[in-house]
Amino acid sequence: MNIRTISTKPFTDQKPGTSGLRKAVTVFQEPHYLENFVQSIFDSLEGYEGKTLVLGGDGRYYNRQAIQIILKMAAANGFGRVLVGRGGIMSTPAASCVIRKNQAFGGIILSASHNPGGPEGDFGIKYNVTNGGPAPEKVTEAIYARSQVIDAYKILEAPDLDLDDLGKFQLGSLAVEVIDSVEPYMQLMESLFDFDRIGELLSSAKFGMCMDSLHAVTGPYAHAILEQRLGAPAGTVLNGLPLEDFGGGHPDPNLVYAHDLVEILYGEKAPDFGAASDGDGDRNMILGRKFFVTPSDSLAVLTANAHLVPGYRQGLAGVARSMPTSGAVDRVAAKAGIDCYETPTGWKFFGNLLDAGKATLCGEESFGTGSNHVREKDGLWAILFWLNILAVRGESVEQILQSHWQSYGRNFYSRHDYEEVDAAPAKELMERLRKEAPDLKGKQFGNYQVEYSDDFSYTDPIDGSVSQKQGLRVGFSDGSRIVFRLSGTGTKGATLRVYLESYESDASKHNQDTQAALAPLIAIADEIAQIRTSTGREKPTVIT
Ligand code: VG1
Ligand code: CO
Q1: Ligand 1 atom 11: the closest Cα is on which residue?
Q2: Are 175 and 201 in contact (CB under 8 A)?
Q3: Which of 180, 210, 225 is the last residue of a domain?
């Protein structure tokens, strides 16, 4: 088998965003596009010769072709072994688990996460480092820099491998093992949660659950763990067959895109518990009967109840949340006397805190929760954590939230997304806000007075690296907050995210409608940022 060196020219747009490089499938299909980026990853790494790489994806359209290309490039570039998921499939948290378990050098995960798939949809690729987590910024910056000067890539001339059955192959000097990632992932879950009690709950006639895998990657994991291992009735997992186009849906577990599940949980004879996960299995949505748990509240509840779960019974070192995530978890941490860290958006910023043993649980408002068991957020992990709490407490999801708010007060929280707006005015809006931010301090908007206003900058407490321009924050004297950010995962135009939060200690006001509770802040956000005028949009595309 020959190693070929192919000449190429740089593509100017290979800058990784919040979570890897995401583009339309048609962009990735351009000659050399994928190969350039993969070679740029390899060229930015040192010392991988003879080592192990983990490879898998969320099964979306182009996954199969990309896996074959990457295997041949890994062979040509001198990796020793690749562990590839059967059929090329591996969820993001399972990939993190496999990297750690096998002490692999790193991993490549093919996913555009919650973005739609299919020939007209999106594709993505990200590199994870030895700790199993997303590459930190210094690595993604090096990859981008390399992609801007790349002039050749190496690939082995070889036939495609059959990856649909477990087995071992040789590709030149590279050993390829097709593995089942469900098994190690399930073992890890079993080491953390009380499977006996969860099993009792799931097989009890008094409890009903519904999990929507949205035709994305968690189907095989959820079938194996919830139905086969824990004894939930067959049919508990809906849409459990991964499809290349996610059945035409948007594999994003929120109230808008997981509407089938929402209808079931808000319908007649609704089950007690509902959950969904996203394209690559790292996000989760938690529902009770006719009840939605915001991801920010979910993180707070998991933190407050961690002592009920075997894997966390010994206590939490600390917690971390992304900056736009609500401060609900901060209140739990303060009461428990543990540290709470605030990081920029994106899981890569939690890696150092987890490695250094400073945080045990982490979460983002964007339906992401996780812990130090891997270095990615983990959808099924969060669902099992909730089931463990429900099994021990014997209360409903709503009762648990109501009593949580009684103890800590309620952080009303919502995110308004303006998707696919024109990029230029969106950028201008952010630049204007950046300029005006310092002058907002002290300004009065109705009953609200601005206490601080800045562009969030983060200094990593472990390695001292600084990440600037991570979102415009406007904080008010009563603790309310508005945050403005542009998405780093969208692929068309720009997506403006407006995050809104207010705190209510009075229990008699905890059951207001969220949008009504936040109405004054929603109006102030438009006044400050001139969203309607700048984007030409009367209202957000998605409210979560
Ligand atoms: C979004 C979320 C962020 C999350 C990221 C990747 O990023 O806001 O919290 O970490 O997606 O999640 P952005 O830049 O579009 O706001 V996933 O499940 O898409 O890998
Ligand atoms: Co995801």
Answers
A1: 489
A2: no
A3: 180
113 is catalytic: yes
Q: How many distinct structural domains can be found in the chain?
A: 3
Single residue among 142, 161, 180 that ends a domain in this structure: 180
Question: Is the CB of 284 inside a 6 Å radius of any atom of ligand 1?
Answer: no
94, 42: one domain: yes
Residue type, 378: D
- The reply to whether ligand 1 has any atom less than 6 angstroms from the CB of 132 is no
**Same domain, yes or no: 399 and 517:** no
Residue whose Cα lies nearest atom 8 of ligand 1: it is: 366
Q: Are 379 and 425 in a shared domain?
A: no
Decide whether any atom of ligand 1 lies within 6 Å of the 106 Cβ: no
- Whole-model pTM: value is 0.95
Are 172 and 199 contained in the same domain?
no
Q: Could you tell me if 198 and 175 lie in one domain? A: no
| CA distance to 100, 336, 342, per residue, from 316 (Å) | 21, 9, 16
Kindly report the CATH number assigned to the domain that includes residue 421. 3.30.310.50
Question: What is the Cα–Cα distance from 162 to 64, expressed in whole angstroms?
Answer: 10
| Residue of 113, 298, 326, 487 with catalytic role | 113
Q: What are phi and psi of 491, to 5 degrees?
A: -120, -5
Nearest ligand by distance to the CA of 490: 1
**Same-domain status, 381 and 245:** yes
Atom number of ligand 1 nearest to Cα 92: 20
Q: What is the mean pLDDT of each run of 10 residues along the chain (544 residues)?
A: 94 94 97 98 97 97 97 97 96 98 98 94 97 94 98 97 95 96 97 98 95 96 97 96 93 93 96 97 97 97 98 97 98 97 96 97 97 98 98 98 97 95 93 92 93 95 94 94 93 93 92 94 93 89 92
**489 CB near ligand 1 (under 6 Å):** yes
Ligand index nearest the alpha carbon of residue 486: 1
Domain housing 432: 410-543
Closest ligand relative to 278 C-alpha: 2
| Atom 19 of ligand 1, residue of closest alpha carbon | 113
Distance CA 202, CA 191 (A): 18
Say if CB 352 and CB 436 are below 8 A apart.
no
